[in-house]
Amino acid sequence: MTKAASAVDRSAESKTASGIRFTARLLRPKVPGRPVSWTFLTLPRDASAKLPSRGQVTVEGTINGHPFQATLEPDGQGGHWLKVDRSLFKADRKRLKEERDALQAGRKPREAPGRESGELPQPLAKAGDVVTLEIAPVAEEPEPKVPADLRKALTAAPKGSPGKPGAREAWADITPAARRDFIHWITSPKKPETRAKRIAAACDMLAKGKRRPCCFDRSGMYDKSLSCPVADDDSTDDGR
């Protein structure tokens, strides 16, 4: 178990009707030589085990009452971790302002997921704080963002023929989850040359009718290619 995983508070994990509820500690990643403006958390093992995959899983839910949707990343040990930054709550900022305005005007705010109507969420936390989450896998996988180099390769790929689609047509035909797997496989290597080779291989696989990347360990448990960030020793101080 990693140092980051050991920092998770596992005492309050439980399954509720609306999702998986647990608490976890926000940790600051250790990035030598430059300041870091985001935090992360690792899911308790019991919570992670209730998810449908050991690989990436897109979930929706709340952190301290703030609604969010994000993709959980595999930690390479059969569990998951989540990057927590301000962009995660972009959609919640407008909702929160509307709720505060409604309360100040004496009106009842619209009901928000994860808390009682009229109850404002807890403040966003900092590194070292323990937060409460309630999550559930999304009903429909969102469309992943396609990297520019992959998009360029698909655009340049030869067109298919009737009954034999090319890479571009095959890409459009596979599911969002399959597209996410291809993107994850392509973007996981650190070396640019490995990434370029995988883009070419992905186009070849798609042109040959393969709908998922071949031999890709989505969990990172076997090829040791995936892991959660290493926590900074000072994650429990007041800075971020």
Short description:
It contains 7 helices and 7 strands, in the order H-E-E-E-H-E-E-E-H-E-H-H-H-H. By secondary structure, it is of the alpha+beta class. Strands 1-2-7-4-5-6-3 form a 7-stranded antiparallel beta sheet.
Notes on the protein architecture:
There is one protein chain. Helix 4 packs across helix 7 and helix 5 (167-173) packs across helix 7 (192-207). The model is unreliable at 1-17 (pLDDT under 50). By secondary structure, the chain is of the alpha+beta class. It has a 7-stranded antiparallel β-sheet with strand order 1-2-7-4-5-6-3. The chain has helices at 3-6, 45-49, 90-104, 148-156, 167-173, 176-187, 192-207, and strands at residues 14-16, 19-25, 39-42, 57-63, 66-74, 80-84, 130-137. The protein has 2 domains: 3-137, Elongation Factor Tu (Ef-tu), domain 3, CATH 2.40.30.100; 148-207, no CATH class.
Keywords:
alpha+beta, Elongation Factor Tu (Ef-tu), domain 3, 2 domains, 18% strand
Integer average pLDDT: 82
Radius of gyration: 20 Å
- β-strand percent reads 15-25%
Number of strand elements: 7
Helix content: 25-40%
**Could you give the distance between the termini?**
24 Å
Supply the helix-strand structural class.
Answer: alpha+beta
- At the fourth level of CATH, the homologous superfamily of the largest domain is AF2212/PG0164-like
Number of helices: 7
CATH topology of the largest domain, what is it called? Elongation Factor Tu (Ef-tu), domain 3
Principal-axes shape call? globular
Strand line-up in the sheet with most strands: 1-2-7-4-5-6-3
Count of discrete domains = 2
List the uncertain runs.
Answer: 1-17
Named CATH architecture of the largest domain: Beta Barrel
